[in-house]
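Box 3.1 — From sequence to structure: Class I SAM-dependent methyltransferase
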Amino acid sequence: MKIAHSLNERGHDLYETPAVATHALLKAEKLPQILWEPACGPGAIVRVLREAGHQVLATDLIYHDSLDQDHGGRDFLLERELPKLADGNAVEAIVTNPPFKLAGEFVEHAMKLCPRLIMLLRLTFYESKRRNSILDGGQLARVHVFRNRLPMMHRADWDGPRVSNPTAFAWFVWDRHHAGPSIWDRISWTPTLDAGPACATAQFETPLERQETRAEVRRPLRGDL
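Predicted structure (token representation):
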């Protein structure tokens, strides 16, 4: 029985984020009011953020038949300026679960555009030597590691068996104004007694350790569209 697809078979890498992951982020991190989700898919992260009262610009490379997507056909890696919402307010932070095969490129590009970015990434993202500039540059402010594994994120058109999640995830937070060590802590989610993980509540735990990082020259904020 086939239980995995190759990187080429993944296409546009649409793996919808469990609602509990975003609920846990909201418990662990004070987010600014105006956010941009540049790989929104049908809007899994967007829905939770908007329900929490945030204004969210929801874009994606692919057009999805969803009321939670504002614009399709927008390649985030080709964006050159930080956009504004329809009311003229500027985006304050980027929040997304980037395509797995483009995670490094998404982080690097987002750091050029926005002063603050929050990305749901595999914990192994932290291990790569190829990412020294974005991990050791001094702007990685916090890493919120999930103590318990998130519900499995199956690909949108996945036709294999539904299995539990073997992968550890964390919310990585970069802040252009941060200098010094990265703060690491653990967060968790707990399903309610009568509902599935999508209606779970999040728990926040105390910080566990600090990871020393090197200082980095801060980039100037680019103008708005």
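Summary of the box: Residues 8-211 form a domain with the Rossmann fold fold (CATH 3.40.50.150).
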